[in-house]
Amino acid sequence: MLPSAVIEGLDPAAEPSGRRPRRTARDWIVDFGCFLLAVLVGILAMDTLEQEPDLPKAVEAVDQLIGALACAAVWLRRRWPVGLAVAMVPAGLVSGTAGGAVLVSLFTLAVHRPFRYVAWVGGACAAVQAVYYWLRPEPGVPYLGAALFGVLLTATVAGWGMLVRAKRQLLLSLRDRARHAEAEARLRAEQAQRLAREAIAREMHDVLAHRLTLLSVHAGALEFRPDASREEVARAAGVIRESAHEALQDLREIIGVLRAADADDAGRPQPTLAALDELVAESREAGMKVTLAGRVADPAAVPASVGRTAYRIAQEALTNARKHAPGTEVTVSVAGGPGDGLAVTVRNTAPEGEAPRVPGSGQGLIGLSERATLAGGTLTHGPTADGGFEVRARLPWA
Asked: Which residues cross the membrane (predicted)?
């Protein structure tokens, strides 16, 4: 919702605290233009006064004095739009040279205040116009024509001001909606990151539980087999040391990631890079044209956490290709080695014709980026030069 002070005044630069902002260069130009318009109308009215021979000089002098004061009061139109418009109603009744200031004040009121103010003040101005031309008829102009012209001029100025107000209100509403949309987009992105971290934490929890269980089993074997041979003890100690090292590696990845309260996914088997061939085969059975262009010579040598991340990246990228670019050729490439890192690339060609519009918020790609970051790597994605799409990730392989 827009602040009440902004809605009431319809000033885009208005401050929520209620203090009026300083005039900008544009405000000074507009105010000066309104002042010149009021002065110009007053000068034209002075020529009309000279055409009234029966008008006393004192009345003419008072008319011009009130007109000058009304023109000077135009500079107060932003601070007191209602008060100025109300004050201009009696001024318009006794002074013809104040007509320009009356119109400017009515326009300002229509721009900065709701319709109820414009209706009362505009109606009063129209009535004053009719009385003015009855008391001081225009030379050579019928009373009915002059009064009707005054009423139409008043209605035109009020309508123009309300149109400007409606336009400004629409712009403020669109800006407010844009700010709300940006805030909602940030919240959705943060929620997607949180959900991705929770999913990763669940997976790491399961893997870490497996490591610790293995440690417990081998430590228990040493405890209950004190007569074991040196080779058996050395083998068990090696398994314990390796499992402890891998558990510490997994623990470093899970630090800072909160685990979700529900355990619906607990106990599920965790994929590794060796399961990539099965994933590609499943995609082919689903009707996709998938080519596994690159492989790692020994998938079992890839660290478990890195292999899981690479598998999830390929899985999500294949899902996106099946949803957003059905029927295209997809190429999956995995390459790298110890010390060089692991590179995962999933690229699909440009779809034939117009791609189907499938609802999606991009949360899958956000989750992939989160996975790659937590694994110590990077992930990039975007369209290719030939109109296709590519997901490229680089993961560390110590």
From this structure: 28-46, 84-110, 117-135, 141-163
The 10s digit of each residue's pLDDT in 201-218 is: 666 666 666 666 667 666
Angle at the Cα of 51 (from 50 to 57), degrees rounded to 5? 40
Least confident of 20-24, 39-43, 116-120, 367-371: 20-24
Name every residue whose Cβ is closer than 8 Å to that of residue 163 and which is 6 or more positions away in sequence. none
- Which parts of the chain are beta strand (E)? 289-294, 329-337, 341-348, 378-383, 389-395
Please state which architecture CATH assigns to domain 273-395: 2-Layer Sandwich (3.30)
- Between the alpha carbon of residue 287 and those of residues 255, 282, 311, 333, 346, the distances in Å are 40, 9, 20, 19, 17
**Contact indicator for 42, 88 with CB cutoff of 8 Å:** no
Extents of the domains making up the chain = 4-182, 190-254, 273-395
pLDDT, greater one: 341 or 98: 341
Average pLDDT over residues 53-67: 72
Sign of the C-alpha dihedral computed for residues 289, 330, 315 and 249 taken in this order? positive
Q: Which residue has 């090696």 as its token pair?
A: 238
* Angle formed at CA 241 by CA 237 and CA 243, multiple of 5 degrees: 115
Q: Helices 81-94 and 99-112, interaxial angle, to 10°?
A: 150
Distances (CA, A) of 172 to 1, 13, 80, 236: 10, 10, 22, 71
Q: How much is the pTM?
A: 0.42
What does the pLDDT read at residue 17? 44
**φ and ψ of 204, to 5 deg:** -65, -35
Q: Is 366 helix (H, G, I), strand (E, B) or coil?
A: helix
Region 331-337 average pLDDT: 88
* Contact in structure between 25 and 12 (CB atoms under 8 Å): no
Distance of CA 17 to the CA centre of its chain: 24
Instruction: Supply the pLDDT for residue 257.
Output: 52
Q: Which residues pair with 294 in a beta bridge?
A: 333
Query: What pLDDT digit, counting tens, does each position of 228-249 carry?
Result: 777 777 777 777 777 777 776 6
Are 390 and 329 in contact, with CB atoms under 8 Å apart?
no
Could you tell me the strand order of the sheet in which 341-348 lies? 289-294, 329-337, 341-348, 389-395, 378-383
